[in-house]
Amino acid sequence: MAGRAAEPEVIWARPERAGRGPRPAFSRQDVVDAAVRIADADGIDAVSMRRIAADLGCGTMSLYNYVPRKEDLYELMVDAASAEYVFPDRPSGDWRADMTDLAYQTRAIMYRHPWLSRVMTTAYGFSPNALRYLEWSLGCLTPLDVPAGLKMQLIAMVNGTVMATVRNEQAMAERARGLPWSEAEEQAVRGAYLMGQVASGRYPHLAALLAEAAAPADPEEIFALTLSRLLDSFTPTGPAGERGDAGERVTPA
Amino acid sequence: MAGRAAEPEVIWARPERAGRGPRPAFSRQDVVDAAVRIADADGIDAVSMRRIAADLGCGTMSLYNYVPRKEDLYELMVDAASAEYVFPDRPSGDWRADMTDLAYQTRAIMYRHPWLSRVMTTAYGFSPNALRYLEWSLGCLTPLDVPAGLKMQLIAMVNGTVMATVRNEQAMAERARGLPWSEAEEQAVRGAYLMGQVASGRYPHLAALLAEAAAPADPEEIFALTLSRLLDSFTPTGPAGERGDAGERVTPA
DNA sequence: CGTAGTTACGTACACCGTACGGAGTGGGGT
DNA sequence: ACCCCACTCCGTACGGTGTACGTAACTACG
């Protein structure tokens, strides 16, 4: 029998090697690294088993000795990206600052690997590096005196917000990759359509909004503000009082 | 020339018919409806041009008379789902209640069409029904005295939160669709792996959390709480005071 | 030293999106 | 009234995908 039995299993628990036959030419990590390299360079759609094999210099079907299904490869890629988090020795004691740093790290990683926003379907699975991330986050949140479930909630919401933001930014760029015209043209055409619709008078509130905020705000600042606001909503005492309107934005590390 | 020139265009602006030749056998909406039916029944991956054509009883390539590219079909599907929002004659005046209702509607729509969470990449494009949604949302927010940009922010975050939540719930189910074993088995195997990892002692905080919240909280309540908390963070006066801890949760319409 | 369990991988299959071109159709311009 | 041509319909074909299966080579264990 060549293939392994199709039994339920988690890719993380699958042993990489069972010591009997000839020694493998690559490691599972080699395969994942190649996939990540391709995705970084040419987008996630360029990651095909044949392409990986070609880059690695082996037969296509050999890859299936390292990865049972392509979907598992995606999980492994996300885990590989999650390995890029850098944590200090211990939490600073200021959970708000720590969570802010985490959010900025997440964003940086997603910028480094634009395919992440497409592949990372669930907020977080339980890959080794996801567990590491979760453990660290919970450590940061020990000073915060709220029920455990709420902490998970906070983590999920911070992650979700960062993911949604970045995904939003990247969606059009990724879409433009497969389009027979340039991203700028696409953006122009869509903008023109929007303007036309708004000019039709059917959307007075939207028109008012566009008139008021003619110059779109700095996305960087929006991100910081959103994050700050989100963390506020988990602060037991409430956001009132100490925080000024343009106040003390926590900067990335 | 059979095909239309590959010029930048928005699918919403593309005229459905240009009155010259024989009258089409279907409308664009027919095609979209068929796609939605298939996606509802057999998942988004079952939506192929051949399958749609088969369901419609026409040749595969005929579909390209109605939809220029398959990706546009996705946009049309999202727009079709967005048409399911039901808005009262006018906002209630209580923006918090209105936004809560919107969030619950979004969630309901995503439950009705489990493929939405996979297809709706960007928080919101500018499809006709997305504009309608946006216009209504802004109308609901007129009582809220904050800068226009912040209102957009609020809308985006509410949407993002709902999407993230539902996506999270549905990710495994969708994944299980293509797996050679059942979703229950998958869940069991993953749960077992998680328990094994936690039992290893490498994740003390996570272990503590799992011990504390042995019975996972009701997702329904979590959703309501998260939403409430999020809206709090946009309330100018701050959440302090009037809201009790277990207090007045707004129920879906 | 077999031999059983692995690795490597060529071939093949089913399916995908869609480019292309030909046939049939019917409305608009003359 | 006519014809022309834009248009709809769609069969065929191409280049791509994930991966099941079978065979050959290899190595650690009994």
Question: What is the β-strand count of chain A?
Answer: 0
> Given the helix and strand composition of chain A, which structural class is it?
mainly alpha
Largest sheet: number of strands, sense, barrel closure of chain A? none
Global geometry of chain A: flat
Rg measurement of chain A, Å: 22 Å
- CATH H level of the largest domain in chain A: which superfamily? Tetracycline Repressor, domain 2
CATH overall fold name of the largest domain in chain A: Tetracycline Repressor, domain 2
Please estimate the helix content of chain A: 55-70%
Oligomer: homodimer
Uncertain stretches of 5 or more adjacent residues of chain A: 238-250
Explain this structure:
2 copies of one chain form a homodimer. Chain A starts with 27 loop residues before the first helix and ends in a 21-residue tail after the last helix. Residues 238-250 of chain A have low confidence and may be disordered. The longest helix of chain A has 30 residues, at 148-177. Helix content of chain A is 56%, strand content 0%. In chain A, helix 1 (28-42) crosses helix 3 (70-82). Chain A is an all-alpha fold and 253 residues long. Chain A has 2 domains: 28-68, Homeodomain-like (Arc Repressor Mutant, subunit A); 82-232, Orthogonal Bundle (Tetracycline Repressor, domain 2). Chain A is built from 10 helices and no strands. Chain A has helices at residues 28-42, 49-56, 70-82, 95-112, 116-119, 128-140, 148-177, 183-199, 204-212, 219-232. The interface between A and B is large, with 76 and 74 residues. Chain A binds a DNA duplex (30 and 30 nucleotides) through residues 1-3, 17-25, 48-50, 53, 58-62, 64-65, 69-70.
